[in-house]
Amino acid sequence: MLLDTRxxxxxxxxxxxxxxxxxxxxxxHELVPTPLIERIxxxxxxxxxxxxxxxxxxxxxxxxxxxxxxxxxxRLTYGGLDYLALHSHSARNFVYSVxxxxxxxxxxxxxxxxxxxGTQKILKIHRLGRISFRTVKTNRDYLKNRPSASWMxxxxxxxxxxxxxxxxxxxxxxxxxxPIAQSRHTIVMSLIDSHPLRQIxxxxxxxxxxxxxxxxxxxxxxxxxxxxxxxxxxxxIREDKDETEDDPEAVTLTPILIDFPQMVSMDHRNAEMYFDxxxxxxxxxxxxxxxxxSTTPGxxxxxxxxxxGKDGVRRLDAAVEASGFTKKMAKDLxxxxxxxxxxxxxxxxxxxxxxxxxxxxxxxxxxxxxEEQQVIGTIVPLENEEGLQKLTINDGx
Length: 397
Ligand code: ADP
Ligand code: MG
Prior knowledge:
Layout (H helix, E strand, L loop, with lengths): L12 H14 L5 E2 H8 L4 H14 L3 E3 L7 E4 L1 H14 L5 E8 L3 E7 L5 E7 L9 H10 L5 H21 L7 E5 L2 E5 L4 E2 L9 H17 L2 E2 L8 E7 L9 E7 L6 E2 L5 H20 L10 H7 L8 H7 L4 H19 L6 H4 L33 E2 L7
Antiparallel strand pairs: 1-3, 2-3, 4-5, 4-14, 5-6, 6-8, 7-8, 9-11, 10-13, 11-12
Helix pairs in contact: 1-2, 1-3, 6-11, 7-8
The structure holds adenosine-5'-diphosphate and magnesium ion.
Magnesium ion binds next to loops.
């Protein structure tokens, strides 16, 4: 499911039209009947033009035929959805070129991209269901229990939710990447020149960074939110020059938060559990990595709860709901994320704890799980534009 943009330049305007038609047809058909594709795409060349495009698209894996289906039809693949999203980002001038995949999470691919001025950004491609849909059986059970749940729908929800949260968080001045655009299951955001906390082996003043991170949890809570996955992978540490010091080498460490699809409201029925888990995660990491333990217990949910909406602060949980990310969407996505979490803890996929070992090394020997592993690397901006491939889109516009 690697994003490979090479086939893009060979797609004709008709191919793009047919691809779009398959996407439109997918809204109410898991398998889009070929006659429906013909009808939606209405090419000048008639059905033969559509068939040529269908065969082009199928050849490069953007759509796929389903074996043993009851009728003749095609479904959109992740590749097809990726192309449609990139097409949209490119048309809006947010993405001009695409670099390599720099990270792979359990449910996302992270790519470096650049706009036409060469400014590098991050493209996050949500891939929910990458694990859930692995086996046919799980797939079938999954869809039976929740008919509206499909990888495409869920991945789009994850991107929508993440983007909505990044927007309100940024408006409130929280340290998050700048959300630039969202299309389908993808988000374009600013690239933070930083190291994930996970990669930092020593810091001069752990107490101060710990205090900053706890303060962030409390600040989120006051605005009605819990991050829900507040761990060393999702906290990026940026080194900023410390202007207050005489020493030109002096830096301050600024934590930047990422990864928001699992954020929950302080009013969520399991809010206390999520809040405590976020706090515990940081405590455990600081103890293990920096041998630092705070002398103050907590913070505790019941105290944080009293501060929600205090001093006239804006409730961001409410703000996101108002932005169009509805309760139903939240529910569908949550069910999928919890299911994924349950799978991880049953040992289907490694979670961050499984990756941790005593020597502090990042590698595990489990190579065949490669797809599921988080590639833990610092994302440094590319030195020049050689690593970036210009997107060539001939869509006739
Ligand atoms: P996932 O949901 O798969 O965990 P994340 O959003 O946490 O995806 O991103 C995975 C990794 O990619 C992070 O741990 C971080 O190293 C890197 N990353 C993500 N977004 C950015 C960004 N805006 N700037 C720099 N690095 C990023
Ligand atoms: Mg993450």
